[in-house]
Structures are given as structure tokens and as C-alpha cells.
């Protein structure tokens, strides 16, 4: 039986922090295998990359989530008690709550709200000398998602709530003061949404019947009991936070339109091309580096032994760029998605929602539709200039981002040109 290759460092946590997107795939190439073992935060962890490893990772008979995610991520990005930490029937039942919110009518409503907000924001940008797109889109999406979910957002609170929601994903993987700001933002955000949940239950707030605020506040788990106010707040934030996080992908899309000008013309002239463009942005650009689980039991795979309880980390970024699955993976080619076979194991930019063949994250529908609306507006409805700036992608932060956060100047609506 072959032994799983071991990273040479006593503990590889610092190496992971310095290269979060390349840490796993580079070492897999070094060791000539799809997996290796390293100590992360002094805990043995099997790191894997590639479509075959992904197919293994999402087998729910072999892996569980509980206890796998590092505490610092649980206390910032996900929150404690949410769907990401559940397994089995409990996970599927909670996931159904989210799926009930993703009807075509609800998604269409979200798209309409987003398109209208782009027009409003672009008009305001025309009066400014410079606009930092990443910051502006965070505010746009915060207002949109609060309206869509039925969460009240008084205008005087909008910037503060945007900042707190952004900190949940923008600083979750940081260390030092940024991490502590993310922890504080988690506590403040949960208190805010707990008040919303309790307001719905007490009748002080009356959101629409099909809104996320109403559905989550009244949802009953497998035991027939409503979610506690804190868990309900965590789950409602699991809609607010990732929707605002689409600002990362939208900024990447703007970066791609600037870096690959032919794509702008493609979006302007080719029907249906926006779908392929959006998917290639999600494949090509770094979003979240990896996801984690634990081995449910002892088992063997390709001759390698996985001990029960061992933490396993799947490399998302490297898998999305695996040359065995994609031709010229380091090149930006939207047309590749005309031929994509739909495999859920070679293209998993947002991780996954369930450890089975249907493991896609429910938020993918939201992400794709928000990106399509935004890309079409950027390509077809507005013009802007690009002042000198550093557009290199900073892959030492999670999520990665152009170092300038993408600055635009002289913004003008196409209809006013």
C-alpha cells in the first residue's frame, strides 16, 4: 500500500497563508500525486486536488463536515450552527429551506432589482471623479439583497451594514486586526438579524410570504421546532453574505472585460455569450481556495489509506484549472463552456453544498444571474475610463482581488453619450 506523500515542513500553516490558492496544487505537482499530507494548525490534514479527488471528496458515505472547518472560519465566514456544518438528513432538510427560496419567480425578481440598481448607481458615478468598483458594488448588492429578502435596511445604516457584511468574507481568512474586525462584524450582524427574526415572529415586521426573512423565521427543523433566533440569523446571513460576496466575481468580470477586450465585443454582439463569459470568470479567477471535511470512517482510495476522523482539504482553485480537465487552463477562453460536459467535479468555484452527486451550492443560481445582469450592464450600458492603477490580482489575500480594487473614472451611461 503506497504511503500518502508528506509535506516536509513540521507545520505548513504559514505556507498556506502566504500562498492560499497555490499551496495544494504546487505540492501535488511536486510529489507527483493528487494528494499529500501536511500539518495545518498542528493538525494532520490530507490535501487533495483534481477532478478525481473532488469526486471522492463529495461522497457523503465517506466524509462529514462537522468538526472540519477551522474555528476562525466558522466564527467569521459561516457562523456556528448553519447549514455548512450539518450532515445527513439534517443537512438535506436545512438545504431544502434554501432551495425553496430559489424559484424562477424569486430569481427574476432579484434580477430586476439588480438591473434597476445598476442604472441608479451608474448615474451617481457619473458625478464622481473616480469610482472604486469593488466598494460600490458591495453597497449596491447589500441594498438589493436586503430588499429581496425582506430585511429592513434604513438608509442611515446602509454603509455600516455593508461594511459588516463585507467583513464576514473579506477578512475571514486574515490574521490580526482584520480577523478581529471580522469576528466583531459577525456578532453585530447576528444581533441585527436576530432582531429581524424576532420582529417577524412577533408580527412587528411583515415581509412577503415567499421572502427569505419570512421563510427562515418560520422554518421548522426535523424535530418540528423553529430555529433558534441565533441559528435563524446565521441562516439568513447565509443568504445576505454570499450575495454581497458576488461583488468579488463582478469585479473580476470587469477586470476580464478590461484585460480581454474581445470579450466586451462578444457580449455586445453574440446572443448567449454572457453565460459562457460568466462561467469562465468563475473558473479562471481565484474565489475561495479550498473546502474541508473529515473522513467518516477508515477507507482506501487508489491504494491510499484514509483514517477515520482525518481532516481533508479539497483544492478548488487548482481543480478548476486542472490541465487534465481543461485545455490551456491558464488562458481565459469563455468559448470552452460551449463544450463543457457539466461535470460537478472539474468546475466547483463555490465549493459545494452536499456530499453527493448533487453537491452544488444553492447560491450558485444567485451568483450566475447577478453576474449576468452585471456583465451585460458593464458591456452594453455604460462607458468609463481606466486611470493608471495596479490591476495585478493579489492572491495572498482571501478572497483575491485586483490590488487597486478596480478604479473607474469619467463614468457615463451609454444612452447619454
DSSP helical segment count: 15
Runs in which pLDDT lies below 50 for 5 or more consecutive residues are none
Radius of gyration: 21 Å
Question: What number is the mean pLDDT?
Answer: 93
Shape: globular
**What is the end-to-end distance?**
68 Å
Class based on secondary structure composition and strand pairing: alpha+beta
Quantity of strands, as a count:
12
> Helix and strand succession?
HHEEHEHHHEHHHHHHHEEEEHHEEEE
Portion of residues in beta strands equals 5-15%
Arrangement of strands in the largest sheet = 1-2-8-5-3
Biggest pleated sheet: 5 strands, mixed
The amount of helix comes to 40-55%
Write the layout of secondary structure elements.
Layout: H1 13-18, H2 23-31, E1 35-40, E2 43-49, H3 51-57, E3 63-64, H4 71-78, H5 88-99, H6 104-125, E4 130-132, H7 133-149, H8 158-170, H9 177-202, H10 212-218, H11 229-259, H12 261-269, H13 273-284, E5 290-295, E6 299-301, E7 304-306, E8 311-315, H14 316-320, H15 363-380, E9 382-385, E10 393-394, E11 401-402, E12 407-413
Parallel strand pairs: 2-8
Antiparallel strand pairs: 1-2, 3-5, 4-12, 5-8, 6-7, 9-12, 10-11
Helix pairs in contact: 4-9, 6-7, 6-15, 7-8, 7-11, 8-9, 8-11, 9-10, 9-11, 10-11, 11-12, 11-13, 11-15, 12-15, 13-15
Could you explain how this protein is built, in words?
- Strand 10 and strand 11 form a beta hairpin.
- This protein has helices spanning 13-18, 23-31, 51-57, 71-78, 88-99, 104-125, 133-149, 158-170, 177-202, 212-218, 229-259, 261-269, 273-284, 316-320, 363-380; strands spanning 35-40, 43-49, 63-64, 130-132, 290-295, 299-301, 304-306, 311-315, 382-385, 393-394, 401-402, 407-413.
- The strands form 4 sheets. Strands 1-2-8-5-3 form a 5-stranded mixed sheet. A 3-stranded antiparallel sheet has the order 4-12-9.
- Helix 8 (158-170) packs across helix 9, helix 9 packs across helix 11 (229-259) and helix 11 packs across helix 13 (273-284).
- It is built from 15 helices and 12 strands.
- It is globular and about 65 Å long.
- The longest helix is centred in the middle third of the chain and has 31 residues, at 229-259.
